[in-house]
Amino acid sequence: MRAYYEQGKERDRLAGPKGALELERTKEILQRRMPPAPAAVADIGGGPGRYALWLAGLGYTVHHRDLMDLHVDQLRAFAHPSIQTAAGDARHLDLSDSSVDAVLLLGPLYHLTERPDRIQALAEARRIVRADGPVFVAAISRWAPRLDGVLQERLYEDNPDFLPLLPEVERTGKLPPVVPNGFVGYTHRPGDLADELSEAGLQLDDLVGVEGLPLAATDMLSRSGDTTAWNVLLDAARAVERVPELLGLSPHLLATATATPG
Ligand SMILES: C[S@@+](CC[C@H](N)C(=O)[O-])C[C@H]1O[C@@H](n2cnc3c(N)ncnc32)[C@H](O)[C@@H]1O
What we know:
The structure is a single chain. It contains eleven helices and nine strands. It is an alpha/beta fold. The protein has a single domain, classed as 3-Layer(aba) Sandwich (Rossmann fold). Strands 1, 2, 3, 4, 5, 6, 7, 8 and 9 form a nine-stranded mixed β-sheet that branches. Helix 3 links the parallel strand 1 (40-44) and strand 2 (61-66). The radius of gyration is 18 Å and the shape is globular. The model has no long low-confidence stretch (mean pLDDT 92). The site of S-adenosylmethionine (SAM) has 21 residues, from strand 2 and helix 5. S-adenosylmethionine is lined by residues 5, 10, 14, 45-47, 50, 65-68, 71, 89-91, 106-108, 110-112.
C-alpha cells in the first residue's frame, strides 16, 4: 500500500471525471448528516486532504490523520489555519474520547485486510466521536474489481493475471495488487460492512451506494462537460443508492453510523 501511495497519485485522484462523481456524491451524502459548522471533524485516512480542505472552507475545524507522511505533507503545504494534520493510524488514534462532532473514515477500510483491524479502526472512530455524532465509513464494493476494474477499466489487458484472481477476490474480499505498485485492498459486501459496524459498537443509520452503476461511467468524460448529462448521472446514482439488490453494484459504499447507546 505504501509503495502505491508513495507514487503521489492520490492527490489528483478525485480531479478526473470519475473521481468527480465520487467526490460530488460523497459531499452530498456527508452533508445530509454533518453537524453545522463550526464543528470539529476528524478526517481519518484523509489522504492529501481533499475533504479536509472542503470542510475547512465551510468553517469546520478539521483533525486530519493519515498513515502516509506524503499525504500529511501535501495537506500541510496549504497551511490552512483550521486544519490540524499529523501522521496516524486509524487503529490507534491520538485524539481524545468524545473529542469531535463527526468522523470521516473514507479510506482505511479499503486497506485493512484483516477483520480485527477493521473493527479496531471502527471502534476508534466510535471512541473519539461525541454522542450522536455521525461516523461516515466508506468501503470498496466486493464486485468493484470485476465491474469497475475488469469490465470498465479492462485492467486485464495490462495484467492477464487479474482475471483468474477474481473468484478468490470475490470469495475472500482480499484484493492483491493488480498492477505494478498496486495496493493491497479489501472489498466489502454491504451486509458485512453492517456487521462490522455493529461489532464495533456503531449503529448503522444509512448505507448507500456512492456512484451507482459503474457502467454508466464509461462515457464519463463526455458527461462531465454536459450539465444535463451530468445531472442525469447524479440523479441515477441517487435513485438507486438504497435499493438493496443494487447496493453492491456501486464501486463505493458509504455508511453513516452513530455510537450504539450504552
Ligand atoms: C483511497 S485513499 C482515500 C483518501 C480520502 N479519504 C478520500 O476519500 O479521497 C485511502 C487513504 O487511507 C489511508 N490509510 C490506509 N490505511 C490507513 C490506516 N490504517 N490509518 C490511517 N490512514 C490509512 C491511505 O494512506 C490513503 O491516504
